[in-house]
Specification:
The complex is a heterodimer. Chain A is an all-alpha fold. Chain A contains 13 helices and no strands. Chain A is 75% helix and 0% strand. The longest helix of chain A has 51 residues. The C terminus of chain A is likely disordered. Chain B is mainly α. Helix content of chain B is 68%, strand content 3%. Chain B is globular. The chains are: A mainly alpha, B mainly alpha. Chains A and B meet through helix 1, helix 3, helix 4, helix 5 and helix 8 of A and helix 1, helix 3, helix 4, helix 5 and helix 7 of B.
Chain lengths: 290, 294
């Protein structure tokens, strides 16, 4: 009796082990199918937008048309895309670089020097988190008219230069740098700027990359501020240019609009692809607030 | 904090000066002006400025347009944040499974981060275009008519869908970073492969993801409240009727499309400030300053 029970238990166990092995083999395949499907669903709107941007007739079907070149040329011409990309690049690059420089200088001062009232200064800069643009948009616009900065690149960039996020990011990173490094540099006779430029900045590469990605994408996608302060051809930003592409036609030319929209995605997408690893590393090593 | 290394007395203040000056000029001064203007009735063209006390606030809270805007914003923000967090958590957990070749999915799921809310709005406007949209046609084969240009509920659903889609990449990126920080043995013990994986995920993995989830909760709330202006302006423009007239859109119309709304718009700015302040207090209280467990 007992022998039979034992035998049936081992049989059951063997059955279980076999189905377990089956599942272990099947599991990656099932997961691959699920994830491939998920990626397809999430990407479908973009794929559909691309198909549309090739169509001229049969609009809205899933069959690519043969008007790709025509639509992109038309969008490029209608929206003055070359100028839009130039204008937006100027703004996104200067703000990203300006923010990185100011954040590094500020964090450097707070960590490597004795600053009386450092906490107050830090708190003041942190207040920017409390004051997103809509909270102060009317007076900031008035200020810009008083400065005569409407339709200028100063007006599109300088109000964005202060960066609480960047300051925190670099402050946290500088704290993890061994003090021996700075001491050694000082003993070797290096001044504060030599140390900053030849030691600290090179080892901050990853954080600089992460912040550049975040700020470049953020500025490239700005909408409300450029809508208010950049209405000349020479300063108009890409998101507003795309809006005009939709607004000019009584009937929306979807092929052209999608061609324009997709061209507007390319620069931030390139920056994301190049720097995503920096951001991932930056996120998993320091950072608490981005 | 490390002991200061360099002895210079003036230099550190010079290094901090640009940041402090910019914050003072472009943040604190305008914010103070918002506060002041919220107590005045201002006419832009006639150049009149009359002190009216709290009248602007009273008018706002008696206005059905503003109350409706508050209600719509609450629905929009809550729905957007909940769907965005739930979907991106599921996708990030799926993509983080230690299976050969899954790196591809991790890359292919974060790209919507590069999209602007405006472009996301346009792409969804195409998908759900009443005449040619793929999704509209798909829905109509199931007998569902969806028209965000006419239907008020449809319009709200439309901006929620586009807003959720756009933020997925950002959330997945941060969830993946959070998952990467979790010790390997915890992940393996709670692998989706095996019995009770659902329970084990919520008991073992999710608590470790909690700080990241709360951080994203705050960031997504700020995103849905403030950064979706472009999405709305390029598609529904607050309509049909006032179905998608969220707080920021209402403020923009009062502050820039009307000649006498500056005081009213400033009062709305102050209400937004109160909302952000409440969120910040929540963040400091419940989301530890350090989101990562090192």
């Amino acid at each position: 009796m007992s022998a039979i029970t034992t035998r049936s238990t081992t049989l059951q166990q063997r059955e279980l082990a076999r189905s377990d092995a089956m599942r272990r083999k099947l599991y990656p395949i099932v997961m691959h199918v699920i994830m491939a499907l998920a990626v397809f669903v999430v990407s479908f709107p973009l794929i559909y937008a691309f198909i549309l941007s090739t169509q001229d007739s049969h609009i809205g079907t899933l069959v690519p048309g043969n008007a790709l070149v025509k639509n992109y040329q038309e969008a490029w011409r209608q929206a003055n895309m070359g100028l839009l990309i130039r204008n937006t690049l100027i703004v996104a690059l200067s703000v990203a670089i300006g923010k990185i420089v100011l954040a590094i200088l500020g964090a450097y001062a707070l960590i490597y020097f004795r600053v009386r009232g450092g906490m107050i200064i830090l708190g003041l800069i942190m207040l920017t988190h409390l004051l997103p643009l809509p909270v102060r948009v009317v007076p900031t616009y008035e200020l810009l008219t008083q400065l005569d900065w409407v339709n200028t690149f100063q007006g599109l960039t300088i109000p964005f230069f202060a960066s609480a996020t960047g300051l925190l990011l670099f402050q946290q990173f500088f704290r993890t740098v061994p003090t021996d490094l700075a001491d050694a540099a000082r003993v070797d006779g290096a001044g504060p700027f030599r140390f900053l430029i030849s030691m600290l900045i090179p080892i901050s590469r990853t954080n600089i990359g992460a912040l550049f990605l975040i700020e470049f994408v953020y500025m490239w996608n700005q909408y409300l501020w450029p809508l208010l302060v950049a209405n000349s051809d020479q300063t108009r930003q890409i998101q507003i240019g795309i809006k005009l592409l939709v607004a000019t036609d009584a009937v929306i030319e979807w092929g052209t609009v999608m061609a324009g929209a997709l061209m507007a995605i390319i620069p931030p997408l390139i920056v994301l692809l190049v720097l995503q690893r920096s951001l991932m590393t930056g996120l998993t090593t320091s950072t608490d607030d981005l | 904090m490390a002991t200061p290394v360099f002895k210079n007395r003036v230099l550190p203040y010079l290094l901090l000066l640009p940041s402090v000056a910019l914050v003072a000029v472009f943040f604190l001064y305008p914010a103070a002006q918002s506060l002041e203007l919220s107590l005045y009735r201002v006419h832009r063209v006639r150049d009149v400025k009359i002190y009216v006390g709290l009248e602007n606030f009273e008018r706002l809270f008696e206005s059905s347009v503003y109350l409706n805007s508050l209600k719509i914003t609450a629905i929009f923000v809550v729905a957007t944040v909940l769907f965005a967090l739930a979907i991106s958590l599921a996708l990030a957990v799926g993509a983080s499974q230690p299976i050969k070749g899954f790196g591809v999915y991790r890359t292919l799921l974060i790209w919507t981060y590069a999209l602007s809310p405006a472009v996301a709005g346009l792409i969804w406007a195409l998908l759900t275009d009443p005449a040619i949209g793929f999704l509209t046609n798909l829905l109509s084969t199931f007998g569902i008519t969806f028209n965000w240009r006419r239907g008020q509920d449809d319009a709200l659903i439309f901006i929620i869908m586009a807003a959720v889609w756009k933020i997925l990449g950002y959330n997945i990126l941060f969830f993946l970073a959070g998952l990467k920080q979790i010790p390997r043995d915890v992940i393996e013990a709670a692998s989706l492969d095996g019995a009770n994986s659902w329970t084990r995920f919520w008991r073992m993995v999710f608590p470790l993801l909690m700080p990241m989830t709360l951080f994203l909760l705050i960031m997504n709330t700020l995103y849905a409240s403030f950064d979706t202006f472009g999405l709305i302006d390029i598609t529904t423009q607050g309509g049909p009727g006032r179905a998608t007239n969220v707080l920021v859109y209402n403020l923009y119309n009062d502050g820039f499309k009307s000649t006498s709304g500056i005081g009213l718009a400033s009062a709305q700015s102050i209400i937004l400030l109160a909302i952000v302040a409440a969120l910040t207090v929540f963040q400091y209280k419940f989301v530890s300053r350090r989101t990562f467990y090192q």
